Structures are given as structure tokens and as C-alpha cells.
TrEMBL record:
Major subcellular location class: nucleus
Record GO cellular component, one term: nucleus
Name of the protein described by the UniProt record: DUF1907 domain-containing protein
Subcellular location: Nucleus
Length: 321
């Protein structure tokens, strides 16, 4: 895989919090606090925290789907961890991307949520027997009548496009963000990243990753169906994907959301600026790609997020187009 490495030098967490708390919500806070144990409800992640050697990666990209799927774009989360220079002795990946069609036999959404550790003398990402893996990754898909499901997947593979936040998975200080009652048009993640861009510009690009909980209210999501038949490809344009192919759903809280986003892309790496995939930690019917919360008069939307910046950005297998 083609890999380019881009150091990041984000400001202190306190400076980030001072910018983030100016969210377009009726009530919002941002502070530096000790991360709770994210293995516990309501998050049920595969590691207790998101601290330690934090990094982000953008793998593949939307050109691997449009205008026609690139069926050679097949990846392994453990191999990607290796390319991100993570330690086989222990680590944690979360994020958003496409499910491994090579294993499922069809297309779907993926919410990576996987940790590993090892007491082996020579742990090796290429030899899973040397690793103790906890795989709480979810695949979100729709059936023939576009009814969604959200289930754990045994595979550690992915495909087409992937955005990952990597860390040692340790507890530690994090950015805790709370928000209630959206006022503007921007969703939670875009509000944060554009606010950071306004404050720090292209001279200090910031890449953030972590988890947020939709605690109250509801939100809109999409779920990719299976690939079209060969005779229906290539896609005519992005409008066809958005209007005719993707399936859209509204789900009530609580929903756990795994996110990676960037304030800017000064190197022109073709980054996906925001990517968030969500799952139902208590059931199997809710999840997908997060669009935005839905404001109504019945209940204000409410969020709780735990985020950290990455100190290295890896651009992996960037499409040529």
C-alpha cells in the first residue's frame, strides 16, 4: 500500500476546548477531563480509553466507489494498524468505513471498534495467534426491503474507504464535549471542525477522533445497500448515489457514534473531512452513517463526546483520481 506520513502539531487540549465550547447549540460545554471507562455502557467500546500515541488515517476513498466499485480495494484493520506504525503489543482502532464485501459477499457500512494486546515474545500483526483481539466492530446493512440491521462481525477486514483513529486505548485526559439543542444548520462534528478551522486555519491542521453519544432526540443516517448489478454500473453521478441508491433512516437515541474529522487539508491529500458511523450498543436495528440530528418540538437533541487529536496523519492507498 502507498503510505504518506504527515505530522500534526495540535494546540493544547485546553486551547481546543476554548474553541469547541462555542458550538451552535442552545447549551454547550467543552472541558479537559479524565476519560470514563468506554468499555462500559452506554459506549461499550473495545478499550477503556482513547489515549496514548494517538494518530489518524484516511484509507482509500470515495473514488473506490464512484463511478464504479474498485473490487481490488480490500484491506485488513490489523494490516492498517501496522501501516499506522502502531504497536502489536497493544492498541485500539475506531472509525468509519465500508464493510468487507470480500467476506460478507455484499456491500455494507462498517463501524470499526477493535483492540488488541499481547504478552507474546514477538507479537506480529501478520500472525493473529500472537494477539489477544477484542473485536466489537459492527456491520450495518439493509435487506431486500431496506430494513436495517446492526450486528457484530468476526472479520477484521474492511474495504473501499476507511477513516480510523488509533491509540494505545489507555485512559487519560480527553476533550469532553456536551451539547444540547442545535441552533444552526451544522451537525455536531462539522460545527467542531469548522470552528477549529476558523481558529487555527491551514497553518495548524487538526485531526480529531473519538466517540460521541446521541443521548436524546433522533438523527438521520444512511446505510449503503449492496452494489448495483453490473448492467446498472457505472453510477451516472453522485446525485444517483444520493437520491436513488443510498437508503435513509431516522433513529431515536441512544446511539453510539465513532468519528474521525479534520479541520483542513492543506497538503491536498483528498481527505474525507468528516466521517462518522454509528451503532446500537443495546440492540441490532439502529446504525449507519451519521448525517445530522433532527430538531423538533418534542425533545431537544443532546450529545456527549470524548475526543482527542491525532499527532500523526497517515494517508494510505490514496486513489489517483
Amino acid at each position: 500500500m502507498r503510505v504518506t506520513i504527515h505530522p500534526r502539531n495540535p494546540p493544547p487540549l485546553e486551547d481546543l476546548a476554548a474553541v469547541i465550547e462555542n458550538l451552535n447549540f442552545r447549551s454547550a460545554t467543552a472541558s479537559v477531563e479524565q476519560c470514563p471507562d468506554l468499555r462500559q455502557p452506554p459506549f461499550k467500546l473495545a478499550a477503556p480509553g482513547i489515549s496514548g500515541n494517538s494518530c489518524v488515517a484516511d484509507i482509500g476513498g470515495q473514488p473506490n466507489l464512484f463511478p464504479s466499485p474498485n473490487f481490488d480495494a480490500k484491506y485488513s484493520l490489523l494490516e492498517l494498524a501496522k501501516e499506522m506504525q502502531m504497536s502489536p503489543s497493544g492498541g485500539f482502532l475506531l472509525g468509519a468505513g465500508a464493510a468487507p464485501f470480500q467476506d460478507l459477499g455484499h456491500n455494507a457500512e462498517l463501524a470499526p471498534n477493535i483492540s488488541w494486546k499481547s504478552e507474546h515474545a514477538s507479537p506480529d500483526f501478520n500472525d493473529a495467534s500472537t494477539l489477544e483481539i477484542r473485536n466489537d466492530t459492527r456491520v450495518i446493512e439493509v435487506n431486500e426491503v431496506k430494513s436495517p440491521s446492526c450486528e457484530r462481525i468476526q472479520s477484521t477486514n474492511c474495504a473501499l474507504m476507511m477513516n480510523l483513529y488509533g491509540s494505545s486505548g489507555h485512559p487519560g485526559p480527553v476533550l469532553k464535549v456536551t451539547a444540547r439543542g442545535r441552533l444552526g444548520n451544522l451537525n455536531l462534528t462539522n460545527c467542531i471542525r469548522l470552528g477549529l478551522n476558523d481558529a487555527f486555519g491551514d497553518q495548524m491542521p487538526i485531526s480529531l477522533g473519538g466517540v460521541f453519544l446521541l443521548k436524546k432526540g433522533k438523527a438521520k443516517f444512511h446505510v449503503m445497500p449492496d452494489f448495483p448489478n453490473k448492467e446498472d454500473l457505472p453510477f451516472r453521478d453522485r446525485g444517483q448515489i444520493e437520491k436513488e441508491w443510498l437508503t435513509y433512516h431516522e433513529f431515536e437515541a441512544p446511539i453510539v457514534c465513532l468519528t474521525v474529522f479534520h479541520s483542513s487539508d492543506p497538503e491536498g491529500l483528498g481527505l474525507r473531512m468528516e466521517h462518522t458511523h454509528c451503532f446500537d450498543a443495546e440492540g441490532n436495528t439502529k446504525g449507519g452513517h451519521y448525517h445530522y440530528d433532527i430538531q423538533d418540538d418534542e425533545q431537544e437533541v443532546e450529545y456527549e463526546a470524548y475526543l482527542l487529536p491525532g499527532y500523526t496523519l497517515y494517508r494510505i492507498d490514496q486513489p489517483s483520481s
